[in-house]
């Protein structure tokens, strides 16, 4: 793919700030800068990577702003193309007018992620590194940040390239045995072939095992608070967040919708969900809320089933089960306990006084660790990587059956070829076009 147009965008978030950044990238970037910038020298004469003070003028020859402009000549730039960066004063109108001046001078407006896409297309970064840029921007915990940084440095890409190289070597060997049978290259030098394939499968499996942690790093562990109305679900959410996020009242059925907030427990990102209380209801609205509660429960990594110990045990309370994904919590420990709860094994807390809440947090972390959801390794794949690697693993599993059934080397080669393509998709070396859109559309414009 050759890129011929020159793109421009405002790379800083909308709104007022001290500085805004407008970027131009592509073959005409320097020419455009020459048209709109006036300073001691023309940008085309600037040394690369040096900042110069000057002024930007509109197509109508009107002064827009005093700016600092720097030129990054290809290929030593973020995109790998000629790239111009203009730092202007951070008003919405100023940056918009500078962008307009760029467009009038011949640039086209960039799509979301197009700068990073060009960096990928020009071979500056692989696809996992491009994705790391989004992860970096979105990171909410130290480990998520570290993971994104390591991925940006290419650690995941390196692991994938190693697997790919081994597959290529294996495939080359098998193809040679097909093409030159007279050379006496045995495709089934049985054990060595299997051992090499096993090693590849192990490496893929090890990466696949980081998928859950990758999801947690990027999205957080889904912890859903549920239970009967008035049990104190919303109070618990507020308590765990440390501020009054949700309305709490003694009216049953106060919360009608699911409410989601992120918290960080010891570096583990957690998506806490407060839900509509469960009860038989006449109201359509409330029943819709309860349906949402049930949907959230299906997607939960961990459920906090909360009950009011001051009230009788709700009918059908099936809370005492040894489900590792569920913690039963009896709330309102500051009030006397109803006889129904006598000898009932559960964590007792008070959202009012905070009693037991620390123990609950510890228990939540312990369960997350038990489920192997606590992110520990800085290499953690995302869902797209997982899909590619699963396909690769399936394709690697097939040759063993083929060999067991005495199928010929051609079959094995076909499977390995498929595995190779799937692994390559992770870093973007094959069928690039298809996957590009899904990756770069998640970016913001100007990145
Ligand atoms: N004494 C006492 N009261 C509490 C405690 N936790 C919550 N409450 C009270 O219990 C009532 C219900 O609390 P909420 O947090 O709104 O309960 P909920 O489970 O979200 O209720 P719904 O949204 O209606 O399902 C409110 O009046 C709270 O002040 C507690 O630990 N002790
Ligand atoms: Mg509530």
At a glance:
The protein has 447 residues and is of the alpha/beta class.
CATH structural fold name of the largest domain: Rossmann fold
Taking Cα atoms only, what radius of gyration do you get, to the nearest Å? Answer: 29 Å
Largest sheet: 7 strands, mixed
User: What's the helical proportion of residues?
Assistant: 40-55%
Structural class by SSE content: alpha/beta
Which percent range describes the beta-strand content? 15-25%
Shape: flat
Strand arrangement across the biggest beta sheet: 3-4-5-6-2-1-7
Number of strands: 13
Give an overview of the whole structure.
By secondary structure, the protein is of the alpha/beta class. It has three domains: 7-124, Probable tRNA modification gtpase trme, domain 1 (Gyrase A, domain 2, 2-Layer Sandwich); 130-210 and 381-427, Four Helix Bundle (Hemerythrin (Met), subunit A), CATH 1.20.120.430; 221-370, Rossmann fold, CATH 3.40.50.300. The chain is built from 14 helices and 13 strands. It has helices at 29-36, 92-104, 114-121, 127-138, 142-152, 155-179, 190-208, 211-219, 233-241, 284-299, 357-370, 383-404, 409-427, 432-440, and strands at 7-10, 19-25, 37-39, 51-57, 63-72, 83-89, 108-109, 221-227, 259-265, 268-274, 302-308, 326-331, 347-348. The strands form two sheets. The protein has a seven-stranded mixed β-sheet. Strands 9-10-8-11-12-13 form a six-stranded mixed β-sheet, sandwiched between helices. α4 runs antiparallel to α5 (142-152). The longest helix has 25 residues, at 155-179. The radius of gyration is 29 Å and the shape is flat. The model has no long low-confidence stretch (mean pLDDT 88). Magnesium ion is lined by residues 233-234, 254-255, 274.
């Amino acid at each position: 793919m050759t890129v011929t147009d020159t793109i421009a965008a405002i790379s800083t978030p909308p709104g007022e700030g001290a500085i805004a950044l407008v970027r131009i990238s592509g073959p005409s970037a320097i020419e455009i800068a020459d048209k709109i910038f006036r300073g001691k020298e023309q940008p085309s004469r600037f040394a690369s990577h040096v900042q110069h003070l000057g002024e930007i003028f509109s197509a109508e020859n009107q002064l827009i702003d005093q700016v600092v402009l720097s030129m990054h000549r290809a290929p030593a730039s973020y995109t790998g193309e000629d790239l111009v960066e203009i730092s202007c004063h951070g008003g919405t109108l100023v940056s918009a007018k500078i962008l307009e001046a760029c467009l009038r001078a011949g640039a086209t407006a960039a799509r979301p992620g197009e700068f990073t896409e060009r960096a990928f297309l020009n071979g500056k970064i692989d696809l996992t590194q491009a994705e790391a840029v989004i992860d970096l921007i979105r990171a909410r915990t130290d480990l998520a940040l570290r993971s994104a940084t390591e991925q940006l440095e290419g650690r995941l890409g390196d692991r994938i390239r190693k697997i790919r190289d081994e597959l290529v070597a294996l495939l080359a060997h098998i193809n040679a045995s097909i093409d030159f049978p007279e050379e006496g290259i045995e495709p089934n030098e049985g054990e060595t072939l299997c051992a090499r394939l096993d090693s590849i499968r192990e490496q893929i499996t090890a990466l696949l095992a980081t998928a859950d942690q990758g999801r947690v790093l990027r999205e957080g562990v889904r912890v859903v608070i549920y239970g009967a109305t008035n049990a104190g679900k919303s109070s618990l959410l507020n308590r765990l967040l440390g501020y009054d996020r949700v309305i709490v009242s003694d009216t049953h059925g106060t919360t009608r919708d699911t409410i989601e907030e992120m918290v960080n427990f010891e570096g583990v990102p957690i998506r806490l969900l407060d839900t509509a209380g469960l009860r038989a209801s006449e109201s359509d609205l409330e029943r819709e809320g309860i349906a949402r509660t049930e949907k959230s429960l299906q997607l939960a990594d961990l459920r906090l089933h909360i009950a009011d110990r001051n009230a009788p045990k709700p009918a059908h309370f099936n809370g005492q089960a040894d489900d590792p994904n569920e913690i039963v919590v009896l709330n309102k420990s500051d009030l006397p306990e109803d006889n129904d709860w006598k000898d009932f094994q559960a964590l007792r807390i008070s959202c009012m006084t905070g009693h037991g809440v620390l123990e609950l947090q510890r228990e939540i972390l312990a369960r997350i660790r038990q489920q192997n959801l606590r992110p520990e390794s800085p290499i953690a794949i995302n869902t797209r990587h997982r899909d590619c690697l699963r396909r690769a693993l399936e394709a690697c599993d097939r040759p063993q059956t083929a060999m067991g059934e005495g199928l010929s080397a051609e079959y094995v080669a076909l499977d390995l070829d498929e595995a190779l393509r799937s692994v390559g998709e992770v870093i973007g070396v094959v069928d690039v076009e298809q996957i590009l859109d899904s990756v770069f559309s998640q970016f913001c414009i100007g990145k």
